[in-house]
Amino acid sequence: MHKSLFEVFEQLIVLSNQERQVITEIFKPLELKKGAFFSEMGKLNKRVGFLVEGLVYYYVLKGEDESITDFTKEGEFVSEYHTFINQTAATQSIKAVEDCKFLVMDYNAIQRLFNEIKEGNKFGRLVLEHRFGIVVNQLLSLYIHSPEERYLFFLRNYPDLAQRVPQYLIAAFIGVKPQSLSRIRKRLAQSH
Question: Which of 28, 50, 125, 192 has its CA 20 to 30 A from that of 11?
Fold first, then answer.
């Protein structure tokens, strides 16, 4: 189960056998069923995870409606990092789109990673820089793109997810009702 995690680590840093052992000890398996929460808005954010298998989405509530901010698939890290590092309540929820398998660590484990892995701090910084870039792109898209452009943004940035994510979630991501997404898709199909 740790093989894909090691691959991600070794794309960014070199690991010794001892460091591989530390990683195996601190990342614990967790399985979530479709619809279950990885973390929930308003509750203490206790973990960061590596998604081995499955798909999750991040959202905030606008009244009764979910406004989706991001999707994360296998091979990527999952957490709301600022609340995890500060050990505060999550400001958004993370929910499973599909059944998921994770490797997770708590706050003490991430401190161990930073202290016992020679380039652990570098690894953490690179992961955070990657996530920061994603968040900035999402935020900019909300302000500068029309719903149709947001849909094209989704297709460009998540080309492998269009068939895995239900249409109502894609609609929530681009900020429209499902009926509007159907009209956008129909217009785009007619223009090609």
Answer: 28
Q: Which of 107-111, 115-119, 143-147 has the lowest mean pLDDT?
A: 143-147
Residues 6+ apart with CB under 8 A from 93: 37, 39, 40, 41, 58, 59, 60
Please give the Cα distance from 85 to 53 (Å, whole number).
24
**Domain chopping of the chain, boundaries:** 3-144, 145-192
Instruction: Map tokens 């460009």 to a residue.
Output: 156
Q: What is the DSSP letter of 103?
A: E
Q: What's the whole-model pTM score?
A: 0.88
Q: Which residue has the tokens 């794309």?
A: 11
Kindly report the CA angle at 123 between 118 and 124, in degrees rounded to 5?
A: 115
The residue whose two tokens read 């509007």 is: 180
Q: List, as own/partner pairs, every contact residues 66-71 make where C-beta atoms lie below 8 angstroms and the sequence separation is at least 24, other chains included.
A: 66/172, 67/172, 67/175, 68/169, 68/172, 68/173, 69/135, 69/138, 69/173, 70/134, 70/135, 70/138, 71/97, 71/158, 71/161, 71/165, 71/173
Distance in angstroms (rounded) separating the CA atoms of residues 4 and 7: 5
- What is the topology classification, in CATH, of domain 3-144? Jelly Rolls (2.60.120)
Distance of alpha carbon 73 from the chain centroid: 7
Handedness of CA 113, 8, 34, 182 (dihedral sign): positive
